[in-house]
Design brief:
Helix content: over 70%
Radius of gyration: 17 Å
Strand content: under 5%
């Protein structure tokens, strides 16, 4: 057997974002109510991506995402609508990024703003549909976001490659899984 055919522990460790994404998406798929509830993932991604793009600090994506997820959990516990807060934070990031030039670094930085607004609109729409219709919309949006992550990963811009790998795989597995559950369910 050649070394190309051998999967080593080191090779697996280098793909830790992929392994983590598959495990997390699989866990999410074990507890779903049609899938529309995962629209909040689109909103968190939108807010995190545009915030980090506006700041011009790709390595902040992991801690920013952690803070956003913790914030969503806290808002839900408090009975607040996290989508409204995430939309406000996104708007502030877009305005700040345009004012400081952070979103004008590259075309992909600038495109974070309309992509974020589209993701927020899709998340809001999905939450207002039936769980299955909302789930199909979220699944489709997740697959589109996986393609967006692949572009950012390939171009090595806006975010770290580890995060775009993780998010792209997570979105692809979760989106595909949701579509399968909706279709087979």
């Amino acid at each position: 057997m050649s070394t190309v055919d051998t999967v080593t522990p080191r090779a697996l460790l280098q793909r830790w974002p992929t392994l983590l994404a598959v495990a997390f998406a699989g866990l999410c798929l074990t507890d779903t109510d049609g899938g529309s509830e995962y629209g909040i993932i689109l909103a968190v991604a939108a807010t995190g991506y545009v915030t980090v793009a506006a700041l011009g600090r790709p390595r902040l994506i992991w801690p920013v995402t952690g803070v956003l997820v913790a914030g969503v959990i806290a808002m839900r516990v408090a009975g607040a609508d996290p989508l409204l807060i995430l939309t406000a934070v996104t708007a502030l990031a877009v305005l700040g990024g345009l004012a400081t030039g952070g979103l004008r670094r590259t075309p992909l930085h600038l495109l974070q703003a309309p992509v974020a607004l589209l993701a927020l609109a899709l998340a809001a729409t999905a939450l207002r549909l039936s769980p299955e219709a909302g789930g199909a919309l979220v699944a489709t949006a997740l697959l589109a976001h996986a393609a967006w992550d692949a572009l950012l990963w390939h171009r090595r811009t806006v975010l770290t490659r580890s995060f775009t790998e993780w998010c792209g795989v997570y979105d692809a597995v979760l989106g595909t899984g949701l579509l399968l559950l909706i279709t087979l369910g």
